[in-house]
Amino acid sequence: MVVSVIGTLCSDLLIVCNKVSQSVISASIFAVILVPMHRRYDALTLAEIAVSLHLSIMATLIDNKPQHRHPEKRNRPDTPLLRKPDWIRVRAPTSKGYAETREIVKSKGLITVCEEAGCPNIGECWDKKHATMMIMGDTCTRACSFCNVITGKPAPLDIDEPRRVGLAVAEMGLEHVVITSVDRDDLEDGGALHFVHTINAIREASPKTTIEILTPDFLRKDGWEAKVIDARPDVFNHNLETVPRLYFSIRPGARYYHSLRLLEKVKDRDPSQFTKSGLMVGLGESKEEVMQVMDDMRSAGIDFLTIGQYLQPTRKHAAVDRYVSPDEFAAYEEIARSKGFLMVSASPLTRSSYHAGEDFARLRDARDAQLGSNA
């Protein structure tokens, strides 16, 4: 009883003192709690209590999750926040379909990028039972200045996760599913085999579902990306995210031409696979730079381009330079189509997996029409 009460009190004190070192916390708690008790308990009892107290402190310090999603950004100065225009506004998710999708995801112990990245379209997509599964945990080894996913040391891979993803896809009755992941630079293969196992599990549980993957760049994981390509997803997506000039500040852990080459490798190895990539705008890029990226993508054989507005997750993230108007997005779409992309989605709220199922059907039709015209 005594040890239980002390343990509870210690936890409360540790929350208050979370910025103090372990040794100082331990000494302070011993002084506050144990010293006044020496008249009521003999030396042996006090020693037992002290051991339990010390273990309780250690367990609390080790088990508590980090309080900051982005510890590497904590000491950065706050960036300014621009007021969002009317065309960016979305409604809070409250529908029955949203609740049902959330229950399926949670019951299978799965993670979605919709939640982790704070996607503005979550209400609309989940109402239709469209959720983008994020595999390999919720913690990324990169620290991109635009992304709201947790940064840190990831947990070991969950080997049962692919099976659960397959079951969730079957339970939701999805015709098309998007699977993405955090970056796992800590793994020898960058998570390539986990992608393969997930693709295979979906095909086993829901054979008619078409599969789109949004992968990391497999930087310095030479050769492993071939395993993923050979698993033959229907769409292989990897986002370039921004123009080359901004990579150092926006995507410092990645390399523009490596990402471009990854998508080119997909076409080299399996020309039948659709390739897809996305850009954010509103980060300070110029129209000419965006058009150059379009040309680079077409040179790599990319079929599908998405362009959306960058939205700042917190004041510690990269600032929004400006909000691009819907008319400018329409112009980008027209330019991209003239450059030969089979499919283009460009709007303020466009995200990689937004309307992915409908867009895949249009993408497939566009290829069929192209092949028919060339016959």
Question: How would you characterize this protein structure?
Answer:
The structure is a single chain. With 375 residues, this protein is of the alpha/beta class. Helix content is 44%, strand content 10%. The protein contains 14 helices and nine strands. The strands form two sheets. Strands 1-4-5-6-7-8-9 form a seven-stranded parallel beta sheet, with helices on both faces. β8, α13 (326-338) and β9 form a beta-alpha-beta unit. α7 packs parallel to α8 (192-205). The longest helix is centred in the first third of the chain and has 21 residues, at 43-63. It starts with a helix and ends with a helix. Mean pLDDT is 83; it is low at 1-11, 13-37, 49-53 and 55-64.
Could you give the order of strands across the largest sheet?
Answer: 1-4-5-6-7-8-9
Helix content: 40-55%
- What gap, in angstroms, lies between the N and C termini? 83 Å
What would you call the shape? globular
Strand content: 5-15%
Radius of gyration: 25 Å
Report low-confidence residues grouped into runs of 5 or more. Answer: 1-11, 13-37, 49-53, 55-64
Q: Major beta sheet, specifics?
A: 7 strands, parallel
Number of strands: 9
Supply the helix-strand structural class.
alpha/beta
Q: Provide a count of the helices.
A: 14
What is the typical, i.e. mean, pLDDT?
Answer: 83
Q: Could you spell the SSE succession in H and E letters?
A: HHHHHHEEEHEHEHEHHEHEHEH
Give the key terms.
disordered N terminus, two-stranded parallel ribbon, 375 residues, 9 strands, seven-stranded parallel β-sheet, single chain, alpha/beta
